[in-house]
Amino acid sequence: MVNVGVIGCGNISGIYFSNLINLFQNTNVFACADIRPERAQAASEKWNIPVMSNEEMMNCPDIQIILNITAPDAHYSLCKQALESGKNVHVEKPLSLTFEQGCELTALAKEKGLLLGGAPDTFMGAGIQTCRKLIDNDFIGEPIGATAFMLCHGHEGWHPSPEFYYQYGGGPMFDMGPYYLTALAFLMGSVTEVTGLTSKPFEQRIITSQPKYGKIIDVEVPTTVAGLLRFENGAVASIITSFDVWKSTLPRIEIYGTKGTLIVPDPNTFGGPVLLSTLDGSGFKEIPLTHGYAENSRGLGVADMARCVMEGRKDNRASGELANHVLEIMSAIHKANDEKIIYKMKTRINKPAPLPNDLLKGQV
What's this model's pTM, rounded to 2 decimal places? Predict the structure, then answer.
């Protein structure tokens, strides 16, 4: 097993602890830390793991991977500290708040000979892996276009502390865009050009969840963000993310090919359904999932990084390069709106390798 130190014991940590301890065969949660001592202590008691400070974790020779699931504004500083301490790092999305910081982290990892990875790892689940297999096996021909939609009315109705989502580094693209853009990059490859438009219809929001019911939030960032992307193969895709829509019937992701259309499942999940329509005219049919990990398997990217650590490899699928490519796309959409430009992408990726479809549960 590879020892993992978890920094951040907030809302998302439970599923990580559960999967890294109980599901994946090659990971061992060695310790946990949190800026709020009571949260670290609660995680320690629930999962029977010791509490360490960040510094103790960075200096511990037994820890090989730092899992950084803190708030986004701490992603860059903690990832940099971990890499400088000689640790491999997997971080929650987004990789950082700025593309420049993302480039610094990917360069530092390369310089140190360390692995850097980033969420989401949902693209490694059964649903999107099945879609990749269909594309690779020519069921829809050459992809020529795609659409992606994430439309809701924000997080103030359910999240206990939703303020961040409306502050710098938040907004629908930086919050939810990574799921959609990572899926598109895995299925279709590198993006070469980006343009976009943004809007902010509401200057303030009212929290209707507990414990901050009634608090007014000032909205600092665009809450509807629309992007237009050109891929390296010439395909064109549109993506719209919004915290301003009460209801919608739009699909999550559709991919259009020369021989058919593929409806991709919600990229914030690991499972299906996957729907395929081909030239036979019969319409959409649900395709059985070809891979495992249809359940909530967050941490799969960490387990894949642990595989690389054990085997001396550098090909973790949820890589820092992929996360930084997605970060550049998101930043570019906002930049294109502000500067009224078509942005030329600076980063390029190779599509991550698909997972084998014969893995036993807990294997990567």
Answer: 0.97
